[in-house]
Amino acid sequence: MQSGKGFVTVFPCGQRNAVSSLNLSAGATVANAVIAPVSPSGTVCFYSSVDTNLLADVNGWFAGGESFSPVVPERVFDTRVGEAGLRPVAKIKVGGAQVVDVKVTDLIGAGGRLVPAAGVGAVSLNVTATDSDGAGFVTVFPCGERNAVSSLNVTVATTVANAVIAPVSASGTVCFYSSVATNLLADVNGWFAG
């Protein structure tokens, strides 16, 4: 927990620029996805403008020169009643043992193909939790075995979003788990070749 409002900067060690990778508020648990450059010695540094505890989960890496294919953002799925997405899902809150399994390859939106059917290693998503029944976390993973990591932290009766780069399973799916009952929605904004 933070001692006050402030920010965290994640940088490749050496000189630190005055930028914010994560904004903090007193007494709150806050997460964000960060793509961090690595120093020549393979290190990443973390700076906080206020006293706080930090933790970081790694979910992948990029080779030098790797390309990102951005797309016009479109809603992939939405668990809220009356809300649509490119993929149909059950219109109930997600939580506990329930996992939402969504095919993210071969996505076709209003403007045409968003994500190809093959050759995709990961997708870039904006994941949102809303109307949560309590405090908890959401994990976005390539289906199969789920690690105990947080992609998004949620609080009761609020709407929280985070950018997530999610690896894609061999069958083109990404899974969504929540430790507490919440509505989930995800928008795709790009993909990485794999």
Q: What features would you describe in this structure?
A:
Helices cover 0% and strands 42% of the residues. With 194 residues, the protein is mainly beta. The strands form four sheets. A four-stranded antiparallel beta sheet has the order 4-13-8-11, with no helix packed on it. Strands 5-12-9-10 form a four-stranded antiparallel beta sheet, with no helix packed on it. It has a three-stranded antiparallel beta sheet with strand order 2-1-3, with no helix packed on it. The termini are far apart. The mean pLDDT is 89.
Itemize the secondary structure elements and their pairings.
Elements: E1 6-11, E2 22-24, E3 45-48, E4 68-78, E5 99-103, E6 107-109, E7 112-115, E8 120-130, E9 136-141, E10 152-154, E11 159-167, E12 173-178, E13 183-193
Antiparallel strand pairs: 1-2, 1-3, 4-13, 5-12, 6-7, 8-11, 8-13, 9-10, 9-12
What are its keywords?
single chain; 194 residues; mainly beta; Jelly Rolls; 2 domains; globular
Structural class, by secondary structure, is mainly beta
Number of helices, counting only DSSP H or I runs of 4 residues or more:
0
Shape: globular
CATH architecture of the largest domain: Sandwich
Compute the average pLDDT.
89
User: Which strand order do you get reading across the main beta sheet?
Assistant: 4-13-8-11
Structure summary:
This protein has 194 residues and is mostly beta strands. It has strands at 6-11, 22-24, 45-48, 68-78, 99-103, 107-109, 112-115, 120-130, 136-141, 152-154, 159-167, 173-178, 183-193. The mean pLDDT is 89.
